[in-house]
Amino acid sequence: MINILVVEDSSVVRDFLVFILSSEPDMNVIGTAANGREAVEFVKRKKPDLITMDIEMPVMNGMEATREIMSSIPVPIIIVTSSYSQSEVEKTYKAIDAGALAILAKPNGIGHKDFEKNRKELIKIVRVMSEVKLVTRKSKFSKVVQETTINKPAVDIDESKINYKIIAIGVSTGGPQVLQKILSALPASFNIPIVIVQHIPPGFMEGMVEWLNGCTALDVSIAKDKEELKGGNIYFCPPEYHLGIDNKMRVELKEDAPGYNIKPSVSYMYRSVGKHFEKKAVGVLLTGMGKDGAEELAMIRERGGLTIAQDEESSVVYGMPGEAAKLGACKYIMSPDKIVEKLISLNK
Predict the structure, then answer these.
(1) Which residue, 191, 216, 221, 336, has most beta carbons within 10 Å?
(2) What is the CATH number of the domain that holds 262?
(3) Are 100 and 78 contacting, i.e. CB atoms less than 8 angstroms apart?
(4) Residue 56: closest CA among 18, 106, 127
(5) How does DSSP classify residue 109?
(6) Are both 52 and 113 inside the same structural domain?
(7) Which of 172, 265, 314, 315 is catalytic?
(8) Residue 207 is part of which domain span?
(9) Residue in 9, 54, 292, 311 annotated catalytic
(10) Has 199 been annotated as catalytic?
(11) Catalytic residue among 130, 199, 314, 315
């Protein structure tokens, strides 16, 4: 049984979340709170398995409550919010910085066409996050680097002799935390363009880009169609598009791509990058649910490109990188610290 605390100042939304969660046989809402202070006090008395946390609340907001809870009695926290105002999005990413694991938009009402989709997404995230072994920013990630030989190219590539043209990163649940860790450690002299597909609710991409821009020496932006990639820049795929790169290093955004059910798709990006850049491509697959990108990462490796997956110990959810590891899609399986070291070593 998953014991849940629902933190939300709107009584209507609070009751709606309780209704959705309580309808599941393996979930039990053990309490509710109307503000962050009530949430902190509740956790001191009775520790839940998971917290759904609103951001804008009276007395104490969700960001402050997350910071206080994670610093004293760590509990998996999901941010569930509906406002895309600059102030709320900023607080949302500060909550992620403090240790919250994921961001979800508040579900639409029962009569809405997206209700069932929203409900299933909330339930799925709650189930997965309730089992997460918390990884905090102070955790000491494994320094062990695993090197795999399955799907190894017929001719082993000497990385030191390759002039890598592009780094493609795929990430989902738990992504903002690990991206912040990796991107903030790259020096201003890093000159390989980076393209990223991050699964995230619409309305939160701009806030994440702004947050990351304050953490890294590189320029972070949302990719624009036909834009030419430049060194020292990081480009995020817009949430409503698929992202490809042509052979002239230009962005190609597509609203629809037959055969790709997730949008944006890591698989779509990897296939494009592997096709056009082959051994000069780097594919990195980080924490996330499901298997988006795993098979296509193997394709990059088979074409001579360098492939890396995040290790299980440091992943919030070892779905996508775990699938890649099973397929032998990654040359290296690494902690974020080691991924940073490897990427810096490729910079020329």
Answers:
(1) 336
(2) 3.40.50.180
(3) yes
(4) 106
(5) P
(6) yes
(7) 172
(8) 146-346
(9) 292
(10) yes
(11) 199
